[in-house]
Amino acid sequence: MSEVYAARRTRLRERCNAGGSAAALVSRPANVRYLAGAAPHGAVLLLGRTGDLLVCSGPPDDRPDRARPDESLPVRSLPGPAGDAAVAATGLAEAQGAESLATEDHHLTVVRHRAMRSVAPRLRLTDLGQAVEQLRVVKDEEEISCLRIGAEIADQALGELLESILVGRTERHLALELERRLVDHGADGPAFATSVGTGPNSGCRGHRPTDRRVEEGDFLSVCLGATYRGYRCEIGRTFVIGTSPADWQIELYDLVFAAQRAGREALVPGAACRDVDRATRQALDSAGYAENLPALSGHGVGLEIDEDPQLAPAAMGKLDACVPVTVEPGVHLPGRGGVRIDDTLVVRPEADGGPELLTITTKELLAL
């Protein structure tokens, strides 16, 4: 993997040089990990004039279950845990003779930025902007493989839960069990806080589990994700508790399923992000649910669970091949509940079979 990380750093350096800066300081943890292979707590990455350096506020964690930095990348640990790696790296950049340093201003606090200026008063600090996040949008096949394994783990955890007795158990208990199963099957941990909503809580995006117990006739909505080697994916499904769904439940489910299918089919290289969003929500808008819809119908995933691109009405840009995204329409009816269906897919050209579905748990309306 050393050559992969080196190539990523080279692409970033080329962007910096084009912007007039010979050095860059990367401080956002996900960006450090993307470029260095690991992001020890408080570490920053210096792309200097004379070479690259990972600066850590203490010795890197060498436990076998932790990600390790690129072996070809020099590491410098500060002598005391109270040191600020970003401030120290700024001083090193000036000592190397750099005239300017591009920094991630969207991640740095004002206090930290002032400290960096004070330690290197002759160094001109410029804004690197979202350059690394933009590099992260298109994934290589190794990254996609990690997402694929994470999706398999999430599918397995969800499938096992559905085979157990659910009536009488609380949302909170089910969420904790799902997260335990993720780890049991090899995940680093959950990709985000697992959401379980029953009855009137179902279909609500980001619902935090409560002590409400599962009852006959409920909708049960579950949204979970697994982290594998730092990469995060997600899946969301809605089920009915009992033997026969009510007519309104079938109608609402079929509508959300149709919307989700339209969004998945719109995932082609070159498609505008806003057009994918429009395809996803069109049927729901026509059915009169426009006011019950979330602000976006999907988003990118990777080292973070919510990355670019954003699939939203005002989103800019177009999709590229090898970009993993979620498609997650849902309708929540206050006091009644609702439906949410969420998949992680990878944008692929038609010649390669079209969008690759990573989360494969059935989307049939199951009565549990």
Q: Which helices and strands appear, and what pairs or packs with what?
A:
Blueprint lengths: L1 H17 L5 E3 L2 H8 L7 E4 L4 E5 L18 E3 L7 H11 L4 E4 L6 H10 L4 E4 L3 H6 L4 H22 L8 H14 L4 E2 L4 E4 L20 E6 L1 E3 L2 E2 L2 E6 L6 H19 L7 H14 L11 E3 L6 E5 L12 E4 L2 E4 L3 E4 L2 E4 L9 E2 L11
Parallel strand pairs: 1-5, 3-4, 5-6
Antiparallel strand pairs: 1-2, 2-3, 7-10, 8-9, 9-12, 10-11, 13-14, 15-18, 16-17, 18-19
Helix pairs in contact: 3-4, 6-7, 8-9
Structural account:
Helix 6 (141-162) packs across helix 7. The model has no long low-confidence stretch (mean pLDDT 94). The longest helix is centred in the middle third of the chain and has 22 residues, at 141-162. Helices cover 33% and strands 20% of the residues. The protein has a six-stranded mixed sheet with strand order 4-3-2-1-5-6, with helices on both faces. It has a three-stranded antiparallel sheet with strand order 7-10-11. The protein has 368 residues and is α+β, with helices and mostly antiparallel strands. Strand 2 (44-47) and strand 3 form a beta hairpin. It is built from nine helices and 19 strands.
